[in-house]
Amino acid sequence: MDRHEYMTTGEFASAMGVSKDTLFHYDDIGLFCPEKVSENGYRYYSIYQMETFDTIRMLRDLGMPLKEIRDMLAHRSPERVMHVFAEREQQIDRQIEKLKAMKQWLSRRREKIADAEKTDFSEVTIQAFSERYYLYGHVADGLEKSIYRKTSELIAEFKKSGMRSDYDAAYIQYDENVQKGKFTEYDNTILLVDERPVTGQYEILPGGRYITAYHVGHWMNIGQTYERLLQYKEQHHLKTESFYIERYVVDNFIAKEIEDYVTEVAVRILDASDR
């Protein structure tokens, strides 16, 4: 045996940057075995096996199970290797798309948190919103637990559709209730998204100028925020839509206590063409 062409287990492990236990395990399962075993049981690896080990390591980095790698190496051919590599390329493409969507989600969340930090929640203002879209869920009994359950169903539906953009849990409050002072009665929950859903049923929330006010604290006290908004509307002689959108801008994702939650209340101003 030419000593220059072979390495002991320790030498091969050191050269490849792995532990000896990894080599022992690969040998035990028949994935990667030493080229020679001496009479006294010492394992020896050929320098020409380094390329094969690099291939195994690359396939492991791609997420291929050891059993699949073993089967591929045992029956390898140009056609089989091409097929396996094509499958892995497709998996990588899907992972890349998923990572891009996750990055977009994180970026959008950061923007929302940054916007919340620089917003004066005591002011009532007019803001411009682009066209948005929402999934609607009816809640017959109006109970808080029913609203949360329906919201969870909408989120599951949203994720099942394959969309990975950010979303906001929100609610529609109707002017009929507002005029009667019934600020905490709800029969719905919605999932508000900036991107048009590619599948499923959804509604369109028109873009335009919105009177916007913010409520800090528990939603049961949101009536005082509606009163500020209505006062602003009256003072500026504005005509608005017959429904309001309530959207959390600070929720349990970034606030520990419900007293620190912030709800945005917005209603679209009707232009002359809308009246």
Automatic annotation (TrEMBL):
TM region(s), chain numbering: none
Domain spans labelled HTH merR-type: 6-75
InterPro entries in alphabetical order: DNA-bd_dom_put_sf, GyrI-like, MerR-type_HTH_dom, MerR_fam, Reg_factor_effector_dom_sf
Cross-referenced Gene3D superfamilies: 1.10.1660.10, Regulatory factor, effector binding domain (3.20.80.10)
Keywords: DNA-binding
SUPFAM superfamilies per UniProt: Probable bacterial effector-binding domain (SSF55136), Putative DNA-binding domain (SSF46955)
Identification of the protein by name: MerR family transcriptional regulator
Origin species: Coprococcus intestinihominis
